[in-house]
């Protein structure tokens, strides 16, 4: 069978197969008929690798975007299609940063509609000539996907516009969401046609394809997948209003690397993951990562750059030189301020015009001297909001020119017709200042382009009447709400909503000294020229390779349905605890040690009550009745509470306050594992904790005999986490000379005597039994949080020492699939109780068939 990998498709496209060399290859169409695909439909969800190994050793990257980096033209007679590269496309420009030895495949839509009967031929031509794979979408589906869900829901919301009324984006439409999922599924099928999953990297771009990672991860668990969001990511207060908020988050988390332009966007995404999915991130050696079902999803923060080479080549064109000369003569004796924006509601064009009006009113000396040239590119969306922006812009320009203009002078020049690149660059060259007043924008490369063009060249210097050695100057006034703002430290940053402040910033840019303008330009030029699009692409791919480095070192399997699908990745030695396996070992052993963490075994899942489950207490009591068993319950709670709760379990051993107090059975005395001379340190720690409790709503102090615990489980997650970090540092400082340890746990900060941990319980039990010659041949230890890792470590290390029988069966088991020192895991508390009940049944059956003498009295003495 022929492989579906790209290498074989390319062989076919080039006639590489001898048997098919004389045949015209027909490229398969995928879902080119109208309709909606179910979000859970996926025929190949169990596939985890390629059908056949790749025949090409060259490194490949598949770049997936909403649109292919192509321009399409049909001959004037309505004949054949003609295609050429779109040099302005970011997807094409980033190829410069990938290296000459990297093969690039593009997947996306064409900007022009292609008739169904032409799609096969167009697909073949694009694959052969451009290595592009087009995704053909039925017009109705495309309208719902792009103009519907993308532009009516995602784009406004990501730019901080809430759908408060039908005029503002409209109410959530489930049919548009289904169209969005269907289109992402079509894109996934296109990727499947060309990918060699063991070798290729896949780089998905922007908000149009946010659920694509789930479809790809479902097909290939180890797919090497990066995603970059080119728009802003809103704060959690905005994002949480989206009805499909969790589906999109979980889909993005199926990537290996997620890229953002700024730290603010990344921080908002991480906050959403924390508040909505309960995930926390860690920063290690400069890299930010989210642990998601055993996989580390890396976060990349790097703004995209401009294509410096393209701009410089256009600067050298004779057309550019002629246009610069024309504009230089046209605006002779005037200072040009330039704005270049799309005609949409977020670019703040009218705010810029109002600021210009304010400048002319407050600084009358600028009348006749300063001109604002506003280039308004056609809007990418459509709708009433675009029409309103256009009407408002035209009206404001007309009013300003009427009030402040005179014959031969218009203070505002509005250009709303499409310009060639060289024409736009000519305006950059002659402008003394560039203004960007967008109220929200993902990146905005206009300031970068302006800086490069102001550097100019010798021919343009001659055209402008400048000496070639004359210092270059430029000034930027930029909104603080755009992605490029943090990287332009020499720009005048403004709040575009504050018209007065923008007007003053414009005036400051005009009157700033020439030397200061030169310094700012040089600073910006150094950054923009070195952090270009090639640098950005190379850096992203480098981090993607690093993020995928441990794919083959982990065992992976998929769980979940539909858009809730995710991949669990664990160490090969970490596996689910089989009930049959543990029961078999239980039946053939005679001296059993069972260590159970209280929270992970006896509490009801999702319950606010901390009182033990009645059913669980009954199981525990029956487990203790087997004379071959020594059962210990380990808890962080105080001994008085545990005594009351488990008074009916006479044979149960209890370790309270995480191992500080130990009692082998109900009628025995409590012992301490660590000698503590006094607890005077509490008088120092408690006032500090009270201070943080008063300032952190939802926090509380738990006072125990041996420790103090500050609990912030009910506080705001972000604020509580920040306060916990501050409290940890504060306590470590004031208790530096005290014999205590300060630890942070899951929503707690605890101060306790040094050396106290749950591992002491396991160590004490095994050591004492070994001293009495009763080596356990069966050890079961179950826990669910960080404090239980000490027990896992002790019993795991004991397998190599004299504390266990040489043939002992050891089961260190954590709850949930996560990184742990345990060798086994179970899914949840319900599964634990079910397993313990099976062990109880085995004990009862053994007691009926072959009763044995009790060893319990001997074990009691040894403890």
TrEMBL record:
InterPro entries: Glyco_trans_20, HAD-like_sf, HAD-SF_hydro_IIB, HAD_sf, Trehalose_PPase. It comes from the Eukaryota. Pfam families: Glyco_transf_20, Trehalose_PPase. In the C-terminal section; belongs to the trehalose phosphatase family. In the N-terminal section; belongs to the glycosyltransferase 20 family. This is Uncharacterized protein. The lineage of its organism: Eukaryota, Viridiplantae, Streptophyta, Embryophyta, Tracheophyta.
